[in-house]
Amino acid sequence: MSQRILHIAHQQLRRYGATRVSWARKLDLGMIKAGYDVHNFSDRDVAAFEAPFGYRPLGVKRANRRLLETVENLQPDLIIAGHCDSISNETLTEARKLCPNAALIHCNNDPLFVPSNAERIESRLQVCDAGFVSTGRRTLATYYPKLIDRLWHMPNPVDESIERFDASSNPDVDTDLIFCSKSTDVTDRLNMVGYLREQLNGKLRFRTPGSYGEPGVWGRQYDEALAASRMGLNINRQEGDYWYSSARMAQLGGNGVLVFSHASNGFQELFPEDTLAYYNDAEELLGGILQFHADDDARRAWAANTRRFFHEQLNSRLYASYIVETALDLPYSHDYVWQEER
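^ that's the sequence the OP posted. Answer follows.
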């Protein structure tokens, strides 16, 4: 019998197509492809729908009640609490009482160096059986030494229906280098991006949607921007956490864009050779960009290798299967490349 799963996460219903690429949606797609019976509860949207005049803060209490109603009706085998700050720990505790045989886990795709997120994970583990975090356990252990036995790493996945383009197969694209971002808190990465803009001016076509006055791109426009790019910068707000990366690494790599990623995050231990292009500082990154810009055959080969690895080993179906199998203590159906020794 297929496991019944309730996934609580923001589903961006009110963005009406201008959506951000969502790891939560990829988790849904992966669970469906793996044969699970998935039901969604979009906490922010339900709060807005239930609120007077659509003012979300006034609908939070009702959204919590609606979640309990959903749990009682659905009786899931697994409850996944993703990024759902509208739902309280008290409500999750009540959900467990309504469905005592269900496993309850927290999935978190945000960085630990943001203090509020580090606190969120610790808080959720007060009521959840386990947590799945997009940072490797080597770093998780330094943040949560007493909780590490209940913490697991989950990668950033691709999905064939979302990362459906292949810039590595195209020798003639509009953009040589792209960096998409609008986040400026807990980071000084725009210093590096500004240095590159200055050094590369007139040498190649460098786009920075969301920064330096260039409008951001969402939904279809974001897909088209990546499909038309040779190389992309995967510059995190901070570097050095083991196996942590912004989800843009999967979005770039999965679409066949050559990915530049900081060496301190340890992905050399996960990815094969000739896939990601690593750098340690701004000067090394600049040199790598110019080298691949001058050798498009190498750019296409490395990007194709990265895209293949993502789609074969870091796809949404394997990602979802790993989370569900781990949460429900089921035998693993695959030798997951990111599975760390415990």
